[in-house]
């Protein structure tokens, strides 16, 4: 599929907070003049605005559990009126949304620039602030509290499994030793602690800070991101209209693996190499529109470096769903 022909409004293309893979997403989801779309990860509103601007008959429902997202949704509500509706909701709780039969659904699993660039949210070690990292700071433990109170098993899971940090033993040991010192509740001090055991002097010549993977793993653990994704995918698929399209943008291998396996299962294919379920027991409910993930162009990566690890997978729900046995 070619994406170059999709027009991107200047107000979106030139925004400081740039939606990832926008042309590609529009090409898959805007397939008819009248569309009913669901944006499960509103963020800065870039994708939602582009959907609304693509056609005057498009209606968009948007979700986000970040309490600050509601304020960012107000300009769209004022501009597009009844064509846009925002809900303060985590996509893992999609079953609480009454609306159904969407022509297209998008999940963009990346953090928004608003979250990354706000020191008080604690997602980035580039800014000094509290190590919070919660997508919804109204619920759950902050990252600092998690690191202070969680079991060693939970810390290992966050650093080794979710963060895929090779030096996980040293990082976990340093975190446990630093409990009670105040280090774990501060982004810059926590990053320096991890760098002191995970990277050493050579990391300074690398593009990637040695705390990057550990911060990722801690964030995933604090927000239960993988569990929410596994819950959200079947809920989103159920809310598609017959022939509707589900698109998911992931940013690391753990997310992408979950999406890939779910999409293959829905399309009646083996989920992975060790999946030996006989073909007669598989049920095809969808067609894959992307056999391989769509990646950003070199131009987009140069324009928006945060897009470099993005992967887009898309499938279409069959018009006639097979009956349950």
Give a nutshell description of this structure.
This protein has 325 residues and is an alpha/beta fold. It is built from 13 helices and 7 strands.
Please give a structural write-up:
- This protein has 325 residues and is an alpha/beta fold.
- It folds into 2 domains: 10-114 and 226-317, 3-Layer(aba) Sandwich (Rossmann fold), CATH 3.40.50; 124-225, DNA polymerase, domain 1.
- Helix content is 38%, strand content 13%.
- It is built from 13 helices and 7 strands.
- Strands 3-2-1-4-5-7-6 form a 7-stranded mixed sheet, with helices on both faces.
- Helix 2 (22-29) packs across helix 3 (46-54), helix 7 (152-162) runs antiparallel to helix 8 and helix 8 packs across helix 9 (187-198).
- The longest helix has 14 residues, at 225-238.
- Mean pLDDT is 89; it is low at 2-6 and 8-15.
Question: Mind sketching the topology for me?
Answer:
Layout: H1 10-13, H2 22-29, E1 36-39, H3 46-54, E2 59-64, H4 69-80, E3 84-88, E4 102-108, H5 113-116, H6 143-149, H7 152-162, H8 168-177, H9 187-198, H10 212-223, H11 225-238, E5 240-250, H12 253-266, E6 286-288, H13 298-303, E7 311-317
Parallel strand pairs: 1-2, 1-4, 2-3, 4-5
Antiparallel strand pairs: 5-7, 6-7
Helix pairs in contact: 2-3, 7-8, 7-10, 8-9, 11-12
């Amino acid at each position: 599929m070619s994406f170059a022909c999709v027009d991107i409004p200047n107000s979106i293309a030139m925004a400081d907070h740039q939606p990832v893979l926008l042309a590609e997403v529009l090409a898959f989801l805007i397939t008819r003049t009248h569309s009913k779309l669901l944006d499960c990860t509103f963020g800065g509103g870039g994708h939602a605005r582009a959907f609304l601007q693509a056609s005057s008959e498009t209606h968009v429902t948007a979700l986000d559990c970040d309490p600050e997202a509601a304020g960012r949704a107000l300009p769209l509500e004022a501009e597009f009126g009844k064509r846009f509706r925002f809900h303060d909701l985590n996509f893992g709780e999609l079953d609480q949304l009454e609306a159904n039969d969407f022509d297209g659904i998008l999940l963009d699993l990346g953090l928004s620039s608003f979250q990354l660039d706000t020191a008080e949210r604690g997602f980035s070690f580039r800014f000094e602030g509290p190590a919070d990292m919660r997508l919804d700071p109204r619920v759950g433990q902050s990252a600092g509290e998690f690191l202070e109170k969680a079991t060693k098993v939970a810390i290992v899971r966050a650093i080794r499994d979710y963060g895929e940090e090779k030096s996980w033993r040293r990082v976990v040991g340093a975190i446990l030793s630093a409990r009670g010192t105040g280090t774990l509740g501060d982004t810059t001090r926590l990053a320096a602690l991890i760098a002191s055991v995970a990277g050493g002097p050579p990391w300074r010549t690398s593009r990637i800070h040695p705390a990057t993977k550990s911060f990722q793993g801690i964030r995933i653990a604090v927000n239960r991101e993988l569990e929410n994704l596994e819950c959200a995918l079947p809920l989103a698929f159920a809310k598609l209209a017959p022939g509707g399209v589900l698109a998911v943008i992931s940013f690391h291998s753990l997310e992408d693996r979950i999406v890939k396996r779910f999409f293959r299962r829905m399309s009646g294919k083996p989920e992975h190499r060790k999946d030996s379920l006989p073909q007669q027991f598989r049920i095809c409910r969808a067609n894959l529109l992307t056999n391989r993930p769509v990646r950003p162009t070199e131009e987009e990566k140069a324009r928006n470096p945060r897009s470099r690890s993005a992967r887009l997978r898309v499938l279409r729900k069959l018009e006639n769903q097979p009956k349950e046995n």
